[in-house]
Recover the amino acids of this structure.
């Protein structure tokens, strides 16, 4: 809110009693404004929350006469978004529209979209828009077509259906993003993700105003791009699943139409098992038998940075591939190279000495600088994971910060990068494959409390949620990305002060449901897995169990990286479960409330859940069993025991049962089928409380 | 069973008492064989049912050591299918496999696949295979790689999981198709279907051994192919949704790898509104304002067959497009041209006189013959809907029979075509968009009782299920195709004598569920629509209602073609409902059983349903209402009334309530939201019976 800041500057400069009064009045207005905003966010389910929003008096009723006008003829992105808008609005509300397409001439249209410039997705593009929903018209204004399509998504989130009608809530919005880089990285190397998966996720990204799709295309487990220059890559450097160049163009076009940049990543010199399987002569260890990796982990195969052939290869490959990606940023990975194979090669050691490279960091920087020159000729800016930030690395590189406190650092490398003069993007704290709660990710601010100059602050471009795919297949990927990424998208777009978790969580429930409109499968595919577990019998008993079960977190599901291989089954109970397990959230809340202030109502609610779990086990026992269900039996049985004990304890036998309950809870903690029951703490507290 | 036919010929030629005895013995063997087959089909859920199948003594247990060997290195189709086989088997059973990929060298592999020739999908290709599942090995032999992948699908249908293990049922199978043309036509003109929809349906087709994807690419509502020669087609002849040539290649490659031919259809000279919107100069009516059609129906815009420019256009277009489709058949539509615009054009009338063309049929034949010459130069055989079968049409054309008794003919045009010497394919009886029961479609045999010579019989290539997409979107298309098309696939593949509906229906339930493995959304998307109706509240009350509701049939949902336009909402209650409504099938069966032989058990089951519906209405009333739910209220309310009356009547007040029930049933018959309650007849019978 720049106006207010300006006012306070004036006030503090010439402070007198009169002006103090003015200040008080202004603070009053501000506070009132703040309060009304909070109220608005209780009513409207917008994510990300807009920069400025006011309630307008009346809503706009959607009926069959609804029309759209776009002020320009050359408006492919807006026509695309507006046409889809009509389908989505009609499908959501059931209203039959007479006009299924936007027009350029109808000046009395219900929704009038005005923008000034056709643009291409590019870092720093103007994405701002204003939106006015009044009783008799809707106006959407923007500088660029991309701003216009951001506004269209906001408008769709304002569309509700009640008993009498469908309507857009009356508002006046002036919106613009806080950060210009709001990304989602998808790893398609560990598990290949077909074009359809990417497209539907691009749709969802656009729905929450994200603008960078970081495409992690290569890793030890697969090189996923067709190369005509190096055809052995698609023949030998994957399990046969890769994108043709035409498919890549298709995805990039699709993203571009949604105002989303595509930043490709070719991870070098480490994470290179797949490349070296096809071209072993580029490897650092002579005579090593390279093969596609099928486990998870950090592996040794590394390109040889002392071999000119390596640079010929990368130059030719990037020259072939770079034109597929119009964006000016090009990610070269550069992470997790421990240099073991370098140390085991005498020639490389000799090379280091000769070139005065003191350690492997220096050698990698030598490599990175050569890469940067190759990319510069292709008009690309080099971006890499934070390991590339060595003392000799030029500040022209963009640093992608993935390490922070979890990795033993004081703070994320993002701040260090900004202070050293690098542009930087944050992913530390946004690793959604770690299966942590939405609350956790929502609480991470890219800048936080770091003391930075304005110049340093400007170096921080934004952030990226990252979904690494060791344990993620096309069947489950949507449920691992959504809805949490919508909360992260709000963190990147909305003001730093928008931090009320409970309020966001309420809005998230609605937006999560609306993602189904775009084909996101995070809700629907749960039952697909449960049906597979029961072999097409009723799934309700498993639904009950999964509503308090979460997959093991922070990679403990696949400790060591060898329990699961890339072709292991990912149709297990853990794959049907998700973080932020629904019943657990409610149960934990009720238990906390009950302990703070026990009432018959809270008691009744608690007992309701114990009965639900105990009944669930009865249903479970009625299923025709199979080997997969049998593996779940110990877990469900323990839950049943705990539940029945608590039902008895709450009836009045609490003292006598305390020890028995403690023992039963201990059983319930035992790891079964890679999930954890996330009500344990509440159960323990409740047992102590009774 | 050719051997048996041979034997009976011998027997009937030289019949003596001794031989009569032999006959009796043989009949005995045959009957026994028949019975054991029937028993096997009770146990094994194969669709289509194989030509010859015997039970082997032991099953093959699937464990983590499972491996596959393929006898040839050049075996892309088989490697693809075998790799997917491993994923599907692992995902279905939860067994972690140590070897995730097939090998060419491992001669002791669990599954050994041998084939002789790499082939390309082509009419008449050898698709036979033999499969032997024994205790310690599985052998799959085939002449071609396509035969091998057909066998892999059979093997997957033999894989079950029980209490102790996962196993392939022991069998000895020798299989081959009855018809060589087993197709599914998808209309992508009325509603565009993205590549992902096509690919998942191709996977499903392969799973039930279908081998022709007929791609209806153009119609009044859209021309869906990119043309570089005629770019106005993609600019003006659709709503912006079309396939790029690269996407077409991608789909054709994908199909080819599954052993599926792709036959494109470019519908001319009628159904041409879209083409003429882009190129009005090719139209038959001067000065006519052509525009993309958004309604359903038969429309007048037609190419001018007397204009040389028309042939230049088609020649250039087909020359550009034909190479995208390697199959030798090319479908030119040719249906439903009523010639109205021809009659309204004096030049066309003059042309007819000059060339001695007596009527519009003759004129269309003139057009078709010119087209056939164009296609011949492109090495394509012309195929068209049965209207092209005029007296002067050469028998080199392939006739696609869509008309029959429903269209006022004595029999389907298929038989007529075969008798006249045309090769022919049947779709009459397989119009799955008419929303008729699976029982209906399963009962249609392409040849039936028609008396044909062997030569005539050989002209009948097979059949095609057709999904016209006026009321079908990507969200619902799978549920409109599957599972019914699996039953049709059996009709095309299995012997004519495989007609036991109840047995097929039992097998279909399992195969339908397995289609989820391939990404088919027919089950999961139902709840997506129901959640949209409730706006993310519980859907169980709507599930209950939808289990006895079916969408209106035989195009009565969109009588006149104008209630729904191409951009109307298809997220309504009718879209969540499907034919063969599950509860209705069971309820109707129980009522019939009860009327034939009333027992306390049948009575109890009947009452169970009335309570279910009555409780459903209670739940429905608890939902926060919206305009879409309100539209369903009258229907649910009537169902509730009927249910409560029956509950009372069955308690003993039947006589008194008969009239009231009759009135309530009448209410329940009233059309609401384009569905019909398909238990009405049973309710009426029950009311009379009580």
């Amino acid at each position: 809110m720049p106006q207010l800041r300006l006012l306070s500057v004036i006030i503090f400069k010439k402070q007198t009693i009169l002006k103090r009064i003015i200040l008080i009045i202004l603070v009053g207005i501000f506070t009132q404004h703040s309060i009304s905003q909070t109220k608005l966010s209780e009513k409207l389910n917008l994510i990300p929350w807009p920069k400025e929003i006011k309630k307008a008096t009346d809503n706009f009723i959607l009926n069959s006469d609804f029309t759209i006008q776009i002020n320009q003829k050359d408006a492919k992105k807006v026509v695309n978004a507006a046409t889809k808008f009509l389908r989505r609005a009609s499908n959501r509300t059931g209203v039959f529209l007479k006009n299924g397409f936007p027009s350029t001439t109808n000046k009395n249209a219900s929704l009038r979209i005005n923008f000034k410039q056709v643009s291409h997705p590019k870092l720093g593009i103007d994405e701002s828009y204003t939106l006015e929903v009044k009783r008799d018209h809707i106006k959407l204004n923007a500088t660029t077509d991309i701003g216009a399509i951001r506004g269209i998504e906001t408008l769709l989130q304002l569309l509700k259906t009640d008993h009498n009608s469908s309507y857009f809530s009356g508002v006046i919005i002036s919106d613009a993003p806080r950060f210009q880089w709001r990304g989602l990285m998808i790893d398609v190397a560990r598990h290949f993700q077909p074009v359809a998966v990417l497209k539907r996720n691009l749709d969802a990204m656009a729905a929450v105003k994200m603008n960078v799709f970081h495409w992690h295309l290569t890793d030890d487990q697969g090189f996923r791009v067709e190369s005509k220059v190096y055809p052995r890559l698609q023949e030998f450097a994957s399990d046969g699943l890769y994108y043709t160049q035409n498919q890549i163009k298709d995805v990039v076009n699709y993203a571009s139409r949604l105002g989303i940049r595509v930043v490709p990543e070719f991870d070098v010199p480490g994470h290179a098992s797949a490349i070296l399987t096809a071209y072993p002569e580029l490897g650092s260890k002579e005579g090593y038998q390279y093969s596609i990796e099928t486990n998870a982990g950090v592996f040794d195969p590394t390109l040889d940075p002392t071999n000119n052939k390596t640079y010929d290869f990368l130059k030719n490959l990037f020259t072939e591939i770079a034109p597929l990606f119009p964006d000016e940023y090009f990610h070269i990975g550069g992470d997790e190279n421990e240099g073991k194979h370098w140390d085991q090669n005498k020639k490389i050691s000799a090379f280091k000495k000769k070139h005065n490279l003191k350690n492997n960091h220096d050698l990698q920087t030598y490599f990175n600088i050569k890469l940067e020159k190759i990319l510069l000729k292709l008009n690309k800016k080099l971006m890499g994971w934070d390991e590339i930030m060595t003392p000799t690395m030029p500040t022209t590189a963009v640093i992608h910060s993935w390490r922070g406190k979890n990795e033993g650092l004081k703070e994320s490398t993002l701040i260090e990068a900004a202070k050293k003069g690098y542009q930087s993007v944050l992913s530390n704290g946004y690793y959604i494959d770690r299966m942590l709660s939405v609350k956790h990710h929502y609480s991470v601010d890219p800048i936080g409390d770091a003391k930075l100059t304005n110049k340093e602050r400007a170096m921080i471009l934004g952030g990226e949620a990252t979904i690494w795919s060791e344990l993620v297949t096309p069947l489950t990927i949507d449920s691992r990305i959504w809805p949490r990424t919508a909360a992260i998208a709000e963190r990147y777009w909305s003001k730093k002060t928008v931090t009320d978790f409970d309020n966001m969580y309420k809005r998230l429930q609605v937006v999560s449901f609306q993602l189904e409109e775009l084909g996101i499968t995070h809700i629907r595919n749960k039952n697909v897995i449960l049906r597979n577990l029961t072999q097409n019998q009723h799934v309700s008993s498993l639904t009950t169990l999964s509503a308090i079960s979460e997959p093991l977190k922070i990679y403990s599901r696949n400790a060591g990286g060898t329990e699961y291989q890339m072709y292991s089954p990912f149709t297990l109970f853990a794959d049907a479960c998700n973080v932020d397990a629904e019943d657990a959230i409610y149960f934990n809340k009720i238990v906390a409330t009950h302990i703070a202030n026990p009432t018959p109502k809270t008691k009744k609610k608690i007992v309701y859940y114990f009965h639900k779990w105990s009944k669930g086990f009865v249903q479970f026992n009625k299923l025709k069993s199979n080997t997969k269900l049998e593996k779940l039996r110990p877990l469900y049985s323990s839950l049943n025991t705990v539940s029945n004990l608590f039902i008895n304890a709450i009836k009045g036998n609490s003292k006598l049962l305390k020890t028995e309950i403690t023992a039963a809870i201990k059983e319930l903690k035992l790891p079964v089928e890679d999930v954890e029951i996330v009500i344990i703490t509440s159960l323990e507290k409740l047992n102590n409380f009774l």
